[in-house]
Amino acid sequence: MSEKVIYAMYDDDDVLKDGAKKLVAKGIKVADVFSPFPIHGIDPIIGVQNTRLGIMAFLYGITGTTIATLGMRYFMIGDWPMNIGGKPNFTYLDNILAFIPVTFEFTVLCAAHGMAITYLLKNKTLPGMPASNPDPRTTDDKFVMELRMSENSGFTAEEIQDLLRSTGVIEIDQKEVK
Amino acid sequence: MHKESAIREPLILGHKTYHEITEDVCKPIEDKAPRAWYVLFAIALIIAVYGVGCIFYLLGTGIGVWGLNKTIGWAWDITNFVWWVGIGHAGTLISAVLLLFRQKWRMAINRSAEAMTIFAVFMAGTFPLIHMGRLWLGYWVFPLPNQFGSLWVNFNSPLLWDVFAISTYLSVSLVFWYIGLIPDFATLRDRVKRPIPKKMYSILSFGWSGRAKNWNRFELVSLVLAGLATPLVFSVHSIVSFDFATSVIPGWHTTIFPPYFVAGAVFSGFAMVQTLLLVMRKGMRLENYIHTRHVEYMNIVIMVTGSIVGVAYLTELFVSWYSGVEYEAYAFINRATGPYWWAYWSMMTCNVISPQLMWIRPLRRSLYFTFFISIVVNIGMWFERYVIIVSSIHRDYLPSSWSMHYPSHIDIGIYLGTIGIFFVFFLLFARFFPVLPIAELKTILKSSGESYKNAPDTHGHHDHDNTAHGHDQSQLGTENTNNH
Lengths: 178, 484
Known about the structure:
The complex is a heterodimer of chains A (178) and B (484).
Chain A: E1 3-10, H1 13-25, E2 32-34, H2 42-46, H3 53-79, E3 83-84, E4 87-88, H4 96-122, E5 143-148, H5 157-165, E6 171-177
Antiparallel strand pairs in A: 1-5, 1-6, 2-5, 3-4
Chain B: H1 18-30, H2 35-61, H3 76-87, H4 89-100, H5 106-131, H6 158-191, H7 195-204, H8 212-245, H9 257-283, H10 292-322, H11 326-337, H12 341-353, H13 361-364, H14 367-393, H15 409-432, H16 438-448, H17 450-453
Helix pairs in contact in B: 1-16, 2-15, 3-5, 3-9, 3-14, 4-5, 4-8, 4-9, 5-6, 5-9, 5-15, 6-7, 6-8, 8-9, 9-10, 9-14, 10-11, 10-12, 11-12, 12-14
């Protein structure tokens, strides 16, 4: 099913932010914003939730710590206890100091890669994925606001366009998308 | 938005717009490469091919072709390894530590510094791999099940910690670098006209679209990766120093090594960044983005870390006497006055005296002088590792086995070869990749761009949002324009 989408283009991030604030105050839902760099402060205005990737990073990190600890305990204490210079290590705790560096490195390894992979998957950015920005200039110096008519059933397209014109927009485009 | 004092020089000179930033960074990639690039690339390639030839000769014949002997079992290989890892410390330090400290000047240099890091760590990794002799068994350093031998790898050994530290550092730096590159590849994808580059950049950009949510995640991921990479940077060179510090060799067996190695690594890494960027900014006409202010800041880092290194040298010297261990004392007397005195005093001159010149403001703001010192520091830091490694082991506990190390032409060939390979990679990076972070630079244009910084406030958006509590955009702006 196709629906009407309005793309409003701005040439300044602050103008777009003020515009978005104005529209939202009128009860219009802004579906998304495409920009060449992060616009600070836009997320609360258009209702984008803060990401929880930080929590994921912590969980991946803890997983790494656990794997490293259990792994070294098995290798060095359980499976083949090493007798180094006549100083055998019968328990993990006896030998824990020597295991700190690898535990730390493995924690960082898991946290960083786990988070990076989750980030790429959540963003749907993977090698060969098609880009979905409405205009190639949004990766250069233009900022585009996306408004979906299905989310703004209380307004007609003309009303929204009139409102947009009062916010310093430079181009308005209306498209049918699936 | 962050407000910067009006008396500071702008970070972006010239009256740039967002579009001009894109133009300035993308133009050198889209245009034909200048003749100088081809000349440099050809030179680097010839040296690289020679180095690869030497590596093949080494692998085919065995590490007996190095100038090692029974007493000196470690010389240029580990020296070069530590030197390259040290150089590889600046990139992640710049992008991670300076990100945590909100140092905006990092944005002009972080991309190429990270590229430098990654290529330098590649070069570093080459040495432990080829010194195994049988390169194809290199995977034995990982804890693999026991059919490969009777034992697991030894997790008590700093050499194994190194395996984990270097591979984590390399892969995390690579991910950090690439995540920053994705939006800039998208910019290139949307600009280039020719079909093959367009296809390449659209694959490299992973379909980045720049949605608000994407940027929200981007910023958090950058911050968390920076938080993870910061202790990582410090841990990596600490662990490299454990290779020596946990041994019982006089001259190596010192607790000062971890901080001293980390400071030395940052010192040499920043010097290499200066060497590369001073040439790159000229060649790619990026003088508006990387200018005296950036160079001066990096010189201050070089000065501070150079001073830490200097203090460490003197501390080491003092403790060797104060400890009352005669072997330890002899190791240091031998360094300074023995057959390797020239290496020791080159190290002292290059690393202790030269950074102190940076106290003089006109010198640290002089680009030619900076370039000269950056080369001196790189030479000095190579000698530091050579002194620590060779001078400590060439006269061991048994005078009958005292010996000297003379590098073979294969030693020299492989070392020069890694420099060649490094420059091949770096020149390819400068040719095809956005060498400045385009997206990040745009975020500081309004707070630190020349045309915005000291201009009267024309937008009048004082009420913007909860992130901008307190600091109004350009209230101070008009008062002080003396830095134009």
